[in-house]
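Per your request, structure below.
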């Protein structure tokens, strides 16, 4: 596996981890807290923001090799991950528009990848 593929995978894994942290934040937002301090400083929120920070560091590290024009294309996989995780954790229905959107994102990623 060449360096570009490895570092591209790092960006996609970062998008997946970031998607999990978004799910954690939504789970936390669904709970009721006795004060604003407890709402923002509970373990779920702190871990989620820590994961966001870690994903940012991963992306910066991967951008040493991945062309800047390619990074947003790979990060778009996060939309797919969030949709799938929302279906799994929140039982949210996948609408026809969302399904078409996911297909278009996958199609765009594949086309861009084949262009390289």
């Amino acid at each position: 596996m060449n360096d570009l593929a490895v570092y591209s995978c790092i960006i996609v894994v970062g998008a997946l981890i970031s998607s999990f942290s978004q799910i954690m934040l939504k789970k936390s937002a669904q709970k009721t807290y006795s004060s604003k301090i407890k709402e923002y400083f509970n373990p779920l929120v702190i871990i989620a923001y820590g994961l966001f920070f870690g994903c940012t560091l991963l992306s910066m590290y991967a951008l040493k090799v991945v062309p800047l024009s390619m990074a947003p294309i790979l990060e778009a996989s996060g939309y797919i991950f969030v949709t799938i995780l929302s279906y799994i954790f929140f039982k949210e229905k996948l609408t026809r528009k969302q399904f078409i959107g996911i297909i278009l994102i996958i199609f765009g990623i594949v086309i861009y990848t084949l262009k390289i």
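The helical segments are 3-29, 36-40, 43-62, 71-75, 77-90, 96-115.

Regards,
D.
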